[in-house]
Amino acid sequence: MSAAFDPSFAEEPPIIPLDMHPPVDLAEDLERLNAKLATYLKPEEIATVGAAFDYAELAHRGQLRSSGDPYISHPLAVAETLADWHLDTQALIAGLLHDVMEDTAVAKEQIAQRFGKVAAELVDGVSKLGRIEHQSYEQAQADNFRKMLMAMARDVRVILIKLADRWHNMRTLGPIRPEKRRRIARETLEIYAPIANRLGLNSLYRELQELSFQYMQPMRYRVLSKAVKSARGNRREVVGKILESIKRRLPEFSIDAEVMGREKHIYGIYRKMREKHLSFSQVLDIYGFRIIVKDIATCYLTLGALHSLYKPVPGKFKDYIAIPKANGYQSLHTTLIGPYGTPVEAQIRTRDMHHVAESGVASHWLYKNVHAIDELQKKTHKWLQSLLELQSASGDSAEFLEHVKVDLFPGEVYVFTPKGKILALPRGSSSVDFAYAVHTDIGNRCIACRINSELMPLRTELRNGDRVEIITAAHANPNPSWLSYVRSSKARAQIRHFLKSQQNEESAALGERLLGQALPGFGGQLSEIGALAWERFLRWSGAKSKKAILTDIGLGKLLPAIVARRLSGSGDSAAGTVEPKPQNPILIHGSEGVAVQLAKCCSPIPGDPIIGIIRKGQGLVVHTHDCSGIAKLRGERGNWVDVDWEPGQGRMFDVAIRIVARNRPGVLAKVSAEIAAGNSNILDVGMDDDHGLYTSLHFTLQVTDRIHLARIMRGIRRIPEVERISRVHERKE
Ligand code: MN
């Protein structure tokens, strides 16, 4: 903290050109930044950046980095990276000021006053939240990420500043204690490097990986880099030879190209060894080349030329020009069998594609008139938009961060819509992910799918090139079980959102019925409770709305009796001794949705004597009177609800029966025919695998009520082979 800094100074700081600035040891850095700015900014813009430098220098004056350097050297380095990307004045100002809010006494308003709202927003976006007391480190970290990612969704420059910041911190991590170093390195590898990748900032992505690896696994890094160095001489010879052959061959096809060998990164080698179970020499013996040509047609021509030079390895060709990666990357990839049988990897691309491949989103500022960038901008925007949706659906920062990590995972599959549009989905996605990627409404209403014209279950994992068609139904709803297999953050967020609002609706409806049941006990009627009484109750309870109260009752968070007593006014009266009258049971029809559930242990059907229990957060669960499962719950007071079946409704209920029959051919067919004749559906059939005199058959049927079931069981009993028949309460899982 620099206590010496006087914020009142912020109102009238002098503008000093950068090159005239005093701190001697920073002169060289400043000069370099100035020179870079001069290549693309106007003099008055450079002066504003200079003013921001002065402001930051004063704010940080007296602070030192762990290395002993003056603190200002850090924001200065960040600004230089931003200048390399040709970012605008506001981003440069924010880059210079990015640490003042966190580390000095300067407030956001002061920055806004001096340098404008936009720059202040950018600084705020990269600043951490104040640490809340009793908060764990992980929680604080998750909260901070969430804040930053939200700011980045509003303005992508926020993350570019943060990445420049992280890059410089990673380059100067040396003097920090090892434990903290490893923590920062892991965070970089798990979050910042993938974000750089997602935004197409490839060279930064590789550098962040390299630096993280170096700090996380110092031993491995040292061993590998030593091995790479000693192999280099031998490699150089092979690389030179291949390079020569390619350069000779291309002109024969009238191709004008820039050809270069690619150096392997230590982390890349390490990862390939681990993921593909290759030895060091196997990885190192793959030679990489990059060929840059003038247009797309020449890319394909070059591919042909290479395949005529060396034989291609079948199945290794990838066309990222026709189908770009999600981060906008485009190239042709092929693997050839080079001299001495060594694999040769080639990437072929145009100059524009190369810009995007190296600097991704930043190429928007760097190369202002490139077509590919528009497309990339759109994609980035869409991704950021999906982050915002994710944010509104998951309440918890840690959970949100987990979703983002999944989203950043680079594996993707490419599938087609019926109209031939290409969609990129995370690897492992199902047609539910696909449906939500097309449109939220399609996702919410999907019931089945056709993959390559064949009807398939919704959860089928999609493969590259699949053509997917979603079948919807007007009244279909998302199924909670989808959450167990969807991969994309959008699908997950939308399903959760739907289930939550649906549960609230249903719980409120149930809560209203529970309250209506409880009120007469206190001498009231639901219809008699006026707006005034509700308002009084809301003020007393501090709840947001009448609906929130009803929802809480339905969810079992509030006892209906307590609300009823208060609402009817009997709680206030000194007499307060209204005789509780017997309550009318709540009528259940079994299709209330998630608010009312028929217990799995006893599967009640209409006609069974039933009882309900409200459990916190679960809503009302209905059991049969004789269910063995509820015996354990008897001790719980106050949560029991008198329930009964609503007469006459068409719904079918699942019920399980067990039949013991003589083991004769045709017995299964006879039983099935009898069930069908009784107007029931058979959901499941099982047969005990014994070859004795008797066998048991298990059926899961659908019936309207107990009478219906009794009629069917009577019919089955008349079959001569049937010895015994009984209803099964404990359903097999
Ligand atoms: Mn910083």
Structure explained in plain terms:
This protein has 733 residues and is an alpha+beta fold. The protein has five domains: 26-171, Hypothetical protein af1432 (Orthogonal Bundle); 224-362, Beta Polymerase, domain 2 (2-Layer Sandwich); 411-483, Ubiquitin-like (UB roll), CATH 3.10.20; 496-645, no CATH class; 653-728, Alpha-Beta Plaits. The strands form six sheets. Strands 1, 2, 3, 4, 5 and 6 form a six-stranded mixed beta sheet that branches. It has a four-stranded mixed beta sheet with strand order 13-15-14-16, covered by helices on one side. Strand 19 and strand 20 (694-703) form a beta hairpin. Helix 22 (489-518) crosses helix 25 (560-568). Bound molecules: manganese (II) ion. The site of manganese (II) ion (MN) has 4 residues, from loops. Manganese (II) ion binds at residues 74, 98-99, 165.
What's the overall average pLDDT, rounded? 82
Figure out the total of helices: 28
Which structural class is indicated by helix and strand composition? alpha+beta
> The biggest beta sheet, please?
6 strands, mixed
* Count of domain modules: 5
What overall geometry do the principal axes of the alpha carbons give?
globular
Number of strand segments: 21
Strand content: 15-25%
Bound molecules: manganese (II) ion
Spatial separation of the terminal alpha carbons: 62 Å
Residue share in helices?
40-55%
Any idea what the radius of gyration is? 35 Å
Could you list the spans in which at least 5 consecutive residues all have pLDDT below 50? 1-24, 572-579
